[in-house]
Write a structure and sequence with these properties.
Elements lengths: L7 E3 L7 E2 L11 E4 L1 H12 L4 H8 L3 H21 L2 E4 L4 E3 L30
Parallel strand pairs: 1-5, 3-4
Antiparallel strand pairs: 2-4
Helix pairs in contact: 1-2, 1-3, 2-3
Length: 126
């Protein structure tokens, strides 16, 4: 039996869960299902232009896992575009960020400042 997938962090739910070619009824199309973590990987890597290591940290997965998620997502998007299929976005092992985003253990958004990873904030009156 395969190991269960760990929960991946995403920034939010998509506003539109289904994309399809114009002028073709959805019921007559083959549907390709893309998971929410795959959509988040495409958003981080292709839309925001983040490096894999940074994007993987934001999703809470390893860099290699992020690469596999992104590869699967890109294949699904290409298959939908080239084959004229519908693309439905749903499911997957994900945790949606609260409204203000994920917080690190010191209460700031997005984690520690660059170059300060793993260190608590310094006192202001030192």
């Amino acid at each position: 039996m395969p190991r269960p997938r760990c929960c991946r962090r995403i920034s939010g739910m998509p506003s539109v869960p289904l994309f399809k070619p114009a002028g073709v009824p959805a019921r007559s199309l083959e549907v390709i299902v893309m998971t929410l973590d795959e959509l988040e990987a495409v958003r981080l890597a292709d839309l925001e232009g983040r490096y894999h290591e940074e994007a993987a940290a934001r999703m809470g997965v390893s860099r290699a896992t992020f690469g596999r998620i992104l590869d699967a997502a890109r294949r699904k998007v290409a298959a939908a575009l080239v084959g004229g299929r519908a693309l439905r976005i749903e499911g997957g092992p994900v945790a949606v960020a609260p409204r203000g985003g994920f917080r690190c253990r010191w209460g700031r958004r997005g984690g520690p400042e660059p170059g300060r990873a793993g260190r608590p904030p310094e006192e202001e009156n030192r």
